[in-house]
Amino acid sequence: MIAFDEAMSRALSMVRPLESERVAVSDARGRVLAETVHAEIDAPRADISAMDGYAVRLDEARSGQSLKVVGEAFAGTPFTAPLGEGQAVRIFTGAHVPAGADCVVMQEYAQRSGDTVTFGQGFGPSRHIRKRGGDFAAGALMIERGTRLSPAAMIALAGADKADVAVARQPRVAIIVTGEELVSPGSAAASANRQPDSASYGVAALAERYGVKIVQIFRAGDDLAALEDIATHALSLADCVIVIGGASVGERDFAKPMFAGAELEFAFSKVAIKPGKPVWFGTAGGRYVLGLPGNPGSALVTARLFAAPLLIALQGGDAPAEIQTVPLPLAAALEPGGSRETFLRARLDQAGLKPVANQESGAQAPLAQSTWLIWREAHAQAQAAGAMVRAIPL
Question: Which CATH superfamily is domain 4-17+169-323 in?
Fold first, then answer.
C-alpha cells in the first residue's frame, strides 16, 4: 500500500485534460475555463452616480447658493448636455454623471423648490461618483484559464461582456455498482436478502458537483461475464468509469477482473487510508477507471478524496486545490490514531469540528450530518479539544 499523497500524485500524472468547446455564457456555470478571459469593455462604461441625488459642481454646492435644476439623468438614459455654472441635474444611481459635474449630493441633503435646489450643510466629503474603469478597464485580466466558474466568477465573466467562452468539455462519467444484494431504493423491503443501493446516489451527486455529466449508472450482480459486458459498454460511453464495490479479495470481487480485456493498467491498487483502503485507479481501453469501496461511507469519502480532483484535472482545472486543507479547531478530544492516514467524518459548529459518533464504513445516517473530513496522519498523537486539525469540506 502507498500513502494518500503518493497515490494522488500517480493518478494525476496519468490524467490528460479533455478538449475544449465554446459555450454561451449562460451555459458556462460550473465549467472550467479553457482560456484566459479579458474584459471587452470598461466598467463602469463612464463616470456614474453611486447615489440618488443631484449632480453638481462641488464648490457651488458648498456655497449654499440655489442651483437651477436643468434636467434628469437615469441609468441608461443620460442627461447629454454639459452642466453649466449654477446648474444641477437630478440624477439616479447608475446614471452617467454629466460633463462638468464633479459631485453627486445625496438627495437627503437637498431642499427642492420648483426648478431650484439648495443643499444643507454636512453632506460630507464623498463625491459619490464611480469613475470610468474604476472596476476594470477594457483588456484587463478578469479570470485565469483553469478557473472553475463559480457564481462569483460568472458575474465577472458576464460583466466582461463575454457572449461565449471556451471551457473544457464536460467529462462523461459512467458508474458501475456491484453486489448481488443491491436493488433500487424502494424495492429492498420485498426481500430480507436485499438492501438499497445508496452509494451510487451519493457518488453521482458528488461527481455532478464537479461539472461532469453522468451518462449511465449500471447496477450488476456478481457475475463476471455480465460485468465484462457492462464494463465494455461503460468504457464506450464515458471518459471515466467509477466502480463501486467488488474491490477486495473475495471470490466474487470482480471490479478489476471485469476490465482485464481492456488492458487495465494501474496507477495504484490500494492506499493506506481509513476508510477506503481498497480504492484503486488506472486506465482501461483508453479511459480512466476509479474503483471505490462498496460501503457507502467509504465510497463517499474516497469519491471526495479521489474523484473530485481527478474530474477537475480532466477539465484542466486546479486539482490539488480540491484537496487543500484548512485549519479548524476540534470541538472534542481525539484519541491516538492508527497505522493508516484517517479521514474522520465530522460536523462543524461554533465550538469547532466534532467527529460523528459512528465512523463505520457502512454507516449511512451519520453522512447526512457530516460536512467535513478531518485528515489525520498515520500514528497521530492524541489531541485535546481546541487543537487545530487539517480539514477538507466534504
Answer: MoaB/Mog-like domain (3.40.980.10)
Residues 176, 257: contact at Cβ < 8 Å?
Answer: no
Q: List the CATH code of the domain at 48-130.
A: 2.170.190.11
- pLDDT reading at 150 higher than 90: yes
Q: Cell numbers at residue 268, please? A: 495504484
Q: Are strands 341-349 and 352-355 parallel, antiparallel or unpaired?
A: antiparallel
- The boundaries of every CATH 3.40.980.10 domain in the chain are 4-17+169-323
Distance CA 281, CA 255 (A): 11
Read off the pLDDT of residues 52-95 as tens digits, 9 standing for 90 and up: 999 999 999 988 889 999 999 999 999 999 999 999 999 999 99
pTM over 0.70: yes
Task: Please determine, looking at this structure, whether the domain spanning 326-393 carries the CATH number 2.40.340.10.
Answer: yes
DSSP per residue, 282-303: EEETTEEEEEE-SSHHHHHHHI
In the chain, which residues fall in CATH 3.90.105.10?
29-43+135-167
3-class SS of residue 178: strand
C-alpha angle with apex 259: 363 to 303, nearest 5 degrees? 30
Strands in 280-284's sheet, in edge-to-edge order, are 213-220, 172-178, 240-244, 287-292, 280-284, 265-268
Please give the Cα distance from 49 to 90 (Å, whole number): 11
How does strand 129-130 pair with strand 164-168? unpaired
